[in-house]
Design goal:
2 strands, two-stranded antiparallel ribbon, alpha+beta
Length: 122
């Protein structure tokens, strides 16, 4: 919700059992929060736990003393850091390598199955 601050979000995540939050970035416009945040966890397992406990829940659950109702929370993973930083990223996973497969086998298979002459990844 737009009236939830970094501290409140951090405390709520800790109560859920995801105490390894490395960073919280609330999105703001003209000094007011937009009701959206990026949260970086130390482990992928904590991110999965937070997603499973928050996605689809009412936004009032983030604020103590809030009345029921409110919008539903939408929790998604940001893939950009994992693609850009690879094994040096937050979760130490080589996402691009996983998509390509061993020696590019997945890309070759995809190219062949849809009849492409050339596949270029940039």
């Amino acid at each position: 919700p737009d009236n939830c601050g970094e501290r409140q979000l951090w405390e709520h995540l800790c109560c859920l059992g995801t105490g390894d939050v490395r960073e919280i970035l609330l999105l703001r416009h003209a000094g007011k929060t937009k009701g959206k945040a990026y949260v970086l966890f130390s482990s992928h397992e904590s991110a999965l736990l937070a997603k499973s406990k928050l996605h689809g829940k009412s936004s009032h659950t983030l604020l103590s003393g809030a009345r029921s109702g409110g919008e539903r929370l939408s929790v998604r993973f940001s893939e950009s850091e994992r693609y850009v930083k690879g094994k040096n990223g937050a979760y130490a996973l080589d996402m691009l390598g996983g998509l390509q497969g061993k020696k590019g086998a997945n890309m070759i298979s995809l190219r062949n199955s849809i009849g492409l002459q050339q596949a270029l990844m940039t």
